[in-house]
Amino acid sequence: MTDLPVCADYRRLFLEDAVFMDLRSPGEYAHGAFPGATSLPLMTDDERAQVGTCYKQRGQAAAIELGHRLVAGRERERRVAAWRAFAQRHPQGYLYCWRGGLRSQTVQQWLADEGIVYPRIEGGYKALRRFLLEELARSLERAQLVLVSGRTGTGKTRVIHALPEALDLEGMARHRGSSFGHLPEPQPSQIDFENALSIAFLQRLSRRPGPVLLEDEGRLIGRLALPENLRQSMQRAPMLVVEEPLDERVAVILDDYIVDLGARYARRFGAVDGPAMHRARLLEGLDGIRKRLGGARHQALRATMEQAFALQHSGGGNAAHRAWIRELLEAYYDPMYSYQLAQRAGTVLFQGNRREVIAYARSALSC
């Protein structure tokens, strides 16, 4: 094959939000990828399985020959056209396969035959993934983490969004972090989440030194687990504690989980299915904490929630939701927060309402 360009400057690629042509099979891509990657596979999952079986049974030469037979004729022309179009749209991009081996070298050469010289990632996806795992550990050794903590409904995420240098863990996880935090959009894979975390830390620390603010989270955000080294660092981190009166917290929950979340379901699934799915999702969240609530309290809260949704959907507004929100905060979330706060080893740097915490972070922490 012709001597074609290869790139191994992984740090620069992620700092610059490089665009990638991912040549792995659809199944490999679904298992884990990078934010700037587009799946344009050389082989389908079935074709890759056939080539893999051939390699084990008959060796590399036979597997290569089978691969060329499977991706030939009009199918090869169609795939080359897709790679060519991507390269023309993203002339500063890169391509990779699993290890930067035969698949990416083949496509790189086929593009070169079309007059397009496109760089290949040395070591492929595996090398990029290894770099991000190691880089997250390096970032956590350097970073001064500060947690934004507070009871449920104090608007911690709003504080995070008001501070440009903070990192939004729940945004990366596409989940609001509680039993009721499911969004209409699916969560990323665990590997995608970890990759996005590492890239976010890398980019944040490259912009400027100083504290990195994160929302106080448990081990899981939805079904996604925080990397263990990050979780341990957060356990020791100092905190800014947001305090708001109960009525304000009820209003925040109403706005976030009824008004905003309901609108998101309606936009994604339509004016009929969206509200029904929103209702079902919140009731499912309540059912998920049935044991912790106790049977009688759970049953009463469920009846109140169902009545509130019935009233809302009949045009009676959303004020009836305040009753179950208030009860849930006082009876379930507040005791849980008190317990979790006691487990934190970090000191409290400042306590105040959202406005005061934001002002403190901007002045004392230069955020």
Characterise the protein shown here.
The structure is a single chain. With 367 residues, the chain is an alpha/beta fold. It folds into two domains: 6-131, Rhodanese-like domain (Oxidized Rhodanese, domain 1, 3-Layer(aba) Sandwich), CATH 3.40.250; 143-364, Rossmann fold. The protein is 62% helix and 10% strand. The protein contains 16 helices and eleven strands. The strands form four sheets. The chain has a four-stranded parallel β-sheet. Strands 3-2-4 form a three-stranded parallel β-sheet, with helices on one face. Strand 8 and strand 9 form a beta hairpin. The radius of gyration is 25 Å and the shape is globular. The N and C termini lie far apart (51 Å).
In short:
This protein is α/β, with parallel strands linked by helices and 367 residues long.
Low-confidence stretches: none
- Largest sheet composition: 4 strands, parallel
H/E series, N to C?
A: EHEHEHHHEHEHEHHHEEEHEHHHHEH
**CATH topology of the largest domain, which one?**
Rossmann fold
How would you sum up the global shape? globular
Structural class: alpha/beta
Task: Please give the CATH architecture of the largest domain.
Answer: 3-Layer(aba) Sandwich
What is the name of the CATH class of the largest domain?
Alpha Beta
Number of domains: 2
